[in-house]
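Pilot study result, target chain (222 residues):
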Amino acid sequence: MQRRNNFSLTSLELVPANPENAPFLIMLHGYGSNEKDLIQIAHALPPEFRYISPRAPLTMDFGMYGWFPLEFTPGGITVDYKAAQHALQHFIYYTSELIREYRPAGNKVFLMGFSQGAVMSYLTAFNAPELLHGVIALSGQLPEKSLPIVPAQALLRKLPFLVMHGLYDDILPIAKGRSADEWLKQNVDDLTYREYPVAHQISDSGIELIRSWLNEKMPEQK
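Predicted structure:
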């Protein structure tokens, strides 16, 4: 059953048949999208999970939201890092709200982010890895000015990552995915990286891999 809820971020939720202590995936949409986007693929993912898709807090236009402001320039995309840090603190608070309310397996959640949502997923992993079971980063990039500080690195190293990128991505080129792959190889023990012959999107094969990866990493319900 899909329903809307109102924690500190407005969200859509898909509830499993057995919701008590169910494993939990938060789905973070990209810049200019909304909470109705990624929740559409939840039905193709493991049915044991609770899926929540929050709406990013920055209103851009009707039905369009972002996690923090971006500027598209001839030299590439520029980021408002102060606003990104504020968005991160808001999202960490929201994630903690959900954990307190739903008590998912292990009192941790999985994150799956697309594009700017992938950046938010990386930022959360780098700053609050204790909240997470794993991260799925789709068509994103590393927040290079916000790489983790030493105290977070031990927990981060144990965190599983699934990173996917389109070979023909014209928004965040494939070099962004490959750069993330190289950095993560040096800093985490459990990394799966895949490239697909698509643009700035999630391929059907990618969805199949997400499903199998979640099944493999799924914690036990008590």
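One observation from the pilot: The chain is about 30% helix and 25% strand. A full batch analysis is planned for the follow-on phase.
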